[in-house]
Amino acid sequence: xxxxxxxxxxxxxxxxxxxxxxxxxxxxxxxxxxxxxxxxxxxxxxxxxxxxxxxxxxxxxxxxxxxxxxxxxxxxxxxxxxxxxxxxxxxxxxxxxxxxxxxxxxxxxxxxxxxxxxxxxxxxxxxxxxxxxxxxxxxxxxxxxxxxxxxxxxxxxxxxxxxxxxxxxxxxxxxxxxxxxxxxxxxxxxxxxxxxxxxxxxxxxxxxxxxxxxxxxxxxxxxxxxxxxxxxxxxxxxxxxxxxxxxxxxxxxxxxxxxxxxxxxxxxxxxxxxxxxxxxxxxxxxxxxxxxxxxxxxxxxxxxxxxxxxxxxxxxxxxxxxxxxxxxxxxxxxxxxxxxxxxxxxxxxxxxxxxxxxxxxxxxxxxxxx
Amino acid sequence: xxxxxxxxxxxxxxxxxxxxxxxxxxxxxxxxxxxxxxxxxxxxxxxxxxxxxxxxxxxxxxxxxxxxxxxxxxxxxxxxxxxxxxxxxxxxxxxxxxxxxxxxxxxxxxxxxxxxxxxxxxxxxxx
Lengths: 370, 127
Known about the structure:
The structure holds two protein chains of two kinds.
Chain A: H1 3-25, E1 31-32, E2 37-38, H2 47-52, H3 54-65, H4 70-83, E3 93-95, E4 99-101, H5 109-126, E5 130-135, H6 138-141, H7 155-164, E6 170-173, H8 176-180, H9 185-188, H10 198-211, E7 223-230, H11 233-238, E8 246-252, E9 258-261, E10 264-269, E11 293-297, E12 304-309, H12 312-320, E13 326-330, H13 340-345, E14 350-356, H14 357-362
Parallel strand pairs in A: 5-6, 5-14, 12-13, 12-14
Antiparallel strand pairs in A: 1-2, 3-4, 7-8, 9-10, 9-11, 11-13
Chain B: H1 2-16, H2 19-38, H3 42-53, H4 60-79, H5 83-90, H6 96-116
């Protein structure tokens, strides 16, 4: 054997042995913050599990979740794919200015019709006007900044087609033009997260109050607190770890706010859960993230609003709360009781269904709206 | 199955045609063979072969997918021919250090690609 081949061979074996030793010696993390999931635990050995093949599969999943330097390898692969032109197959598109965008939502005429139908039926069942707000995606607003090959965004046409299916008692709020043409459109969405920013949510709040013929708080009424170091969902999904963190803004106006939710005992003073700012995904600072049912009381406000919503309304809710006495937010992914029962308890003056276009087309839970 | 067919009659025919056809024959058999091993569901296997051999128009995203993978496919295709040996002699194989670095990089990228497949982030933590 040539000397050079011996060295190659030793290097290869060294990697294998080194990786094995590191795997055995390094402490195992139980939870992955970036993935928001618990990592696989070491499988318990039994002869039955070995015979059925379950032991082998479990062991493989366990090993894969605890490879030494796993995050580093994920990042290496993400950058290599990006630089060799395989962004098209990546979970997140990289765009100029360190921006990470979700690929476009796939048009699904059946889901669109089914969900709009559920909303129309709900409106006639409760005998009240229901407003619908669909939020265009960040990618649709900033498509021109994406680096390299990407599928094209059609949010404008999709939202228009969905709105055309609305029933009698449903009124639709179209913010597509104002969002996609806005000179400040880069500020309406986060760079490293799929949600709208506080400014984006404020624009949504203002548009909705205009639609309802109500007054709204001007931008100057808010004192803005800037929190640095935010890296959101698209950052975690991309594997592009060198992307710079961004600022997250807390917009606060005068008034008293108390928040309750179905999963937590007791009440919370104020709209922002500051302890959540210590976590990797700081977006949960708004109303403590996702809950099945959230109620915000604000004695200085007027009216009683019900919002059927996804996570975009965690931030939107902190604005709507400024105008209403009570805002009730229902997330159908987790809320499994009939929403109409809430009408018996409370007299809602306004009802809003607010979804991001992607969630509206993929969420199977809207049909349970009754 | 193909082995028996070759022993019994195919080999005589194959020996008489130019090398390129023998190459194509091998690749076809290998590809079909892999597909047979990959699919456990007969319907999915049928659907796969239908898509592979019957023309059907596709959307722009499939074109994008092919374009995106083109550099990798060209590199892989070249590496399967004597071109790779020629490139290596002119390139990294000239010095031991370079060769070591090259193989290390390729190895690490391969590991990274495998490890990435287990990376499975959720947008929200499910409660």
